[in-house]
């Protein structure tokens, strides 16, 4: 009479795995915790939609800012050319110095306004994205509460 010694081949799990049914185990876990995987999938789908929407908003905003910055640069180049022509046609050194001061003041104010405009564009995009994320978080919390209420 031979007895099967479990230590003869300690790494042979063939018999154990023959009885293992992953679908049955998953169903047992789902039944035990009353998990509705459709709810989880729906929530994840919404999260992915949010991710795509926020990425699209970011790309669109970045493109708008780049286009606006290009317009600002082109406008600055045009204004610099006009300023150089104006300085060249000025008469006395006092007139040139006064005109330079005026041009520097105008250039400073324009640069400040442009920086403010770009900053506001970025802030607006950030706020839109934050609003979407906050809305989704609130929805997720409601979905979680409803899922817990179903279990209880």
How would you characterize this protein structure?
The protein has one domain (37-151). It is mainly alpha-helical. Helix content is 84%, strand content 0%. The two termini are 55 Å apart. The model has no long low-confidence stretch (mean pLDDT 85). Helix 3 runs antiparallel to helix 4.
Furnish the topology, listing elements before pairings:
Blueprint: H1 14-18, H2 22-33, H3 37-88, H4 93-151
Helix pairs in contact: 3-4
State the end-to-end distance.
55 Å
Structural class: mainly alpha
**What fraction strand?**
under 5%
Number of distinct beta strands = 0
Number of helices: 4
Q: Count the domains.
A: 1
Task: Please outline the major beta sheet.
Answer: none
Mean pLDDT: 85
Secondary-structure element series: HHHH
Could you name the ranges where pLDDT drops below 50 across 5 or more consecutive residues?
Answer: none
Tell me the radius of gyration.
34 Å
């Amino acid at each position: 009479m031979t007895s099967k010694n479990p230590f003869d081949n300690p790494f042979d799990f063939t018999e154990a795995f023959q009885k293992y049914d992953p679908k049955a185990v998953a169903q047992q876990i789902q039944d035990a915790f009353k998990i509705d995987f459709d709810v989880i999938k729906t929530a994840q789908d919404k999260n992915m939609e949010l991710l795509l929407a926020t990425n699209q908003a970011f790309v669109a905003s970045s493109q708008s800012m780049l286009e606006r910055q290009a317009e600002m640069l082109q406008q600055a180049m045009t204004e610099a050319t006009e300023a150089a022509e104006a300085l060249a046609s000025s008469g006395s050194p006092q007139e040139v110095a006064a005109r330079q001061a005026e041009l520097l003041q105008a250039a400073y104010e324009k640069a400040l306004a442009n920086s403010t405009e770009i900053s506001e564009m970025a802030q607006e995009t950030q706020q839109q994205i934050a609003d979407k994320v906050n809305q989704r978080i609130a929805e997720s919390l409601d979905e979680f509460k409803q899922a817990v209420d179903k279990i209880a």
